[in-house]
């Protein structure tokens, strides 16, 4: 998988990079301030009632398409769909997907 590319650089008056803008959840991780570890009832409900995977439940709760998450991961939508529907993923893959969703990896352990 490729690294996330959702970083924006802002140049100063001299044309050189002066600032880097990153997603807020990435900032929290980098500064060791972790977001809430709670899992919304709507996510748990989708998993129990609809029988979907935690990854799919979170994606739908966040209002994201498979294509959007795949883009954040640097992979194709069909490749992401396979991962989203898999019950068994490597820890590193789950961590990358959690980062792309803007949640903690532990929030996928349901």
Describe the fold and architecture:
The chain has helices spanning 24-30, 41-50, 54-61, 66-73, 77-84, 91-101, and strands spanning 8-11, 17-21. With 110 residues, it is mainly alpha-helical. The protein has a two-stranded antiparallel sheet. Helix 2 packs across helix 3 (54-61) and helix 4 (66-73) crosses helix 5 (77-84). The mean pLDDT is 88.
Short synopsis of the structure:
With 110 residues, the protein is mainly α. The protein contains six helices and two strands; from the N terminus they run E-E-H-H-H-H-H-H. The chain has a two-stranded antiparallel ribbon.
Rg on CA atoms, Å: 16 Å
Q: What is the subunit organization of this protein?
A: single chain
Helical percentage: 40-55%
- Helix/strand-derived category reads mainly alpha
SSE sequence, one letter per element:
EEHHHHHH
Separate helix tally: 6
* Order of the strands making up the biggest sheet: 1-2
The biggest beta sheet reads: 2 strands, antiparallel
Strand content: 5-15%
